[in-house]
């Protein structure tokens, strides 16, 4: 059986490695993905100003009010919602930060939905 603390430590190390290369600027903020066992959270962050510009998650009212669906389908809805909010705020391009997670499943669903909705990364 895999030790949970070890898995978390390994993910954090991967995240630091990703963060050393990916940074959010006012022109190209960072799109951050965070997974929990139940929910997926996405933020658009300007690292220079240390501000969260846009945030959404599967527990937000816009996504939660939809009919019952899988976690991956809910992650797609979150990706689309964040992209729509970003385009409304005038953000067209972002730097994608997968948060140390592998680029598959819910993380990939968020990225693909955001791209389809019009965000560039």
Short description:
This protein has 121 residues and is α+β, with helices and mostly antiparallel strands.
Structure description:
The chain is an alpha+beta fold and 121 residues long. It is built from 4 helices and 4 strands, in the order αβββααβα. It has helices spanning 4-19, 61-64, 71-88, 106-117, and strands at residues 30-35, 40-46, 51-57, 95-97. A hairpin with a 4-residue loop joins strand 1 (30-35) and strand 2 (40-46). The model has no long low-confidence stretch (mean pLDDT 93).
Search tags:
121 residues, alpha+beta, 4 helices, globular
Q: Topology, pairings included?
A:
Elements: H1 4-19, E1 30-35, E2 40-46, E3 51-57, H2 61-64, H3 71-88, E4 95-97, H4 106-117
Parallel strand pairs: 1-4
Antiparallel strand pairs: 1-2, 2-3
Helix pairs in contact: 3-4
The unreliable regions are none
Order of helices and strands: HEEEHHEH
Strand order of the largest sheet: 3-2-1-4
For the biggest sheet, the summary is:
4 strands, mixed
Query: How many strand segments?
Result: 4
Quaternary organisation of the protein chains: single chain
Counted by DSSP, the helix tally is: 4
Rg calculated over all Cα atoms: 14 Å
- The percent of residues in helical segments reads 40-55%
Ends apart, CA distance between termini: 37 Å
Q: By helix and strand content, what is the structural category?
A: alpha+beta
